[in-house]
């Protein structure tokens, strides 16, 4: 009896892992078709991807939901946690033409980091959420710095805001959920190279440098989105944004 229940639960789990990403991708495509894009700093992206140079796309966890859609078919290897939620994210990432490497700082992290470095050394791009999977929000963890240091591949900050969006206030990362007929404001920061030889203090300086660049890139997207809201006569999002990013 127990074996039958386990089999049934396993089947239900597999079905959900297929169904949820399928629905998410469908809804994202619909919203995408009704939306516009404004890109800031696109020259930084164009200095790498079209020339087939490897890089690490660095994305705050608050942008996890729509980043696969906005980066579809770029053959990115995305570092995704081994949690159950990670199974759903993996399904979305794969449906948008990218790959995945499973692992996190708490489980499978060392193995995942090695796999990511191997991928980067093949001159292929990758993607990290430097504050995921558990936070704290907008604090860069060491993994992405180590990957860039060992592989000698630049980090490319990426952030999006929307003129029409819900902000999940109760989530630890204040997740952005775009509304239909929105404008995506996509911002790329300058590529950041991490020196190969660093002592502990130097590593921390580089971590803080990347964190600062990521926050500045986030702020740039927020400010542009707010300008577009004011121009269109839409409700401001400023009161909902984390005040620490505007200091």
Automatic annotation (TrEMBL):
Protein origin, superkingdom: Bacteria
One Pfam family matching this protein: DUF374
UniProtKB keywords: Coiled coil, Membrane, Transmembrane, Transmembrane helix
Coiled-coil regions, chain positions: 198-231
Transmembrane segments: 15-32
The name this protein goes by in its record: DUF374 domain-containing protein
Domain DUF374: 69-137
């Amino acid at each position: 009896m127990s074996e039958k229940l386990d089999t049934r639960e396993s089947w239900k789990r597999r079905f959900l892992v297929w169904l949820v990403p399928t629905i998410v991708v469908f809804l994202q495509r619909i919203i995408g078709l009704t939306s516009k894009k404004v890109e800031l700093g696109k020259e930084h992206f164009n200095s790498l991807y079209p020339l087939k140079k490897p890089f690490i796309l660095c994305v705050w966890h608050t942008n996890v939901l729509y980043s696969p859609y906005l980066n579809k078919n770029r053959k990115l290897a995305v570092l995704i946690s081994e949690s159950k939620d990670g199974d759903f994210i993996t399904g979305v990432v794969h449906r948008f033409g990218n790959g995945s490497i499973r692992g996190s700082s708490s489980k499978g992290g060392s193995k995942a980091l090695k796999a990511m470095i191997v991928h980067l050394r093949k001159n292929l791009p990758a993607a990290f959420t430097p504050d995921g999977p558990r936070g704290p929000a907008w604090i860069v963890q060491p993994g992405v710095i180590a990957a860039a240091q060992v592989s000698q591949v630049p980090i490319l900050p990426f952030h999006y805001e929307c003129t029409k969006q819900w902000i999940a206030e109760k989530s630890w990362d204040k997740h952005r959920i775009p509304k239909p007929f929105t404008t995506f404001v996509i911002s790329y920061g300058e590529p950041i190279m991490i020196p190969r030889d660093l002592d502990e203090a130097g590593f921390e300086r580089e971590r803080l440098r990347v964190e600062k660049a990521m926050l500045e890139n986030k702020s740039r997207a927020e400010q542009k989105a707010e300008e577009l809201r004011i121009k269109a006569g839409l409700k401001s999002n400023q009161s909902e944004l984390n005040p620490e990013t505007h200091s």
